[in-house]
């Protein structure tokens, strides 16, 4: 069995234990997926504080709906989908996003090859429409294809391709202007 | 510059601040506490209802037994009175 298959098998076992009420198993699930959930929220909202709040809400909802999760693959899909919905909802509700100086500098992860360019790119991404920002996040953070993103967001793959294309054109144009 | 590699670099996954899992588990514990309290209140109410019901049955049964006893005593008294009336009339 390959290492990836081994990992999936262990995740399924952990999921089963969590579904039987094992709190440690649920904590393991959080630790396994926290970077994915937190980063989707953080990259979309553009703030680590608001990103953490959304990520906590996602795992709280997962705890309440754990019995409906069928496998580790389903769990990953569910987490990405619920995180995306919560991000959109948070912006629609007008949840105040705290953006302090620290938050802005942390929005650019440490170790990027060109921090100055990364900061400019971050600002441009923040100025994009919500759906373009979400699709960019799922494409480049999670490395998902248009069909997978379409499944998550409930839209055809061609619509995703078109949103992605518009976002990239906007970024290229604005980077060219700088 | 290659914008796609720039996006991958910028938007890569990062870990939340330390203690994230603990903070989630704490919120879960806090959110399930009111439910546990509600279950305890419900159990207490059920216990009181059963106790009151039991007491009600006990009181009803005792009243029925007392009524039966009173009727039996009254019947005996009537029988005695009838016997005395018959004895006098002879």
Between the first and last Cα atoms of chain B, what is the distance in angstroms?
A: 136 Å
Query: What value does the average pLDDT of chain B take?
Result: 89
The percent range for strand residues of chain B is under 5%
Q: CATH-wise, what's the superfamily of the largest domain in chain A?
A: RNA polymerase sigma factor, region 2, helix turn helix motif
CATH architectural designation of the largest domain in chain A:
Orthogonal Bundle
Oligomeric state of the chains in view: heterodimer
Q: What does the overall shape of chain A look like?
A: globular
Q: Report the C-alpha radius of gyration of chain B, rounded.
A: 40 Å
Helix content of chain A: over 70%
Compute the CA-based radius of gyration of chain A. 17 Å
Count the domains of chain B.
1
Descriptive terms for the model:
heterodimer, A: about 180 residues, mainly alpha, Rna Polymerase Sigma Factor, Chain: A, Arc Repressor Mutant, subunit A, 2 domains, about 0% strand, disordered N terminus, B: about 90 residues, 2 helices
Write the SSE topology.
The complex is a heterodimer of chains A (178) and B (90).
Chain A: H1 3-19, H2 23-45, H3 48-64, H4 72-93, H5 101-106, H6 115-126, H7 130-140, H8 146-153, H9 157-177
Chain B: H1 3-10, H2 20-89
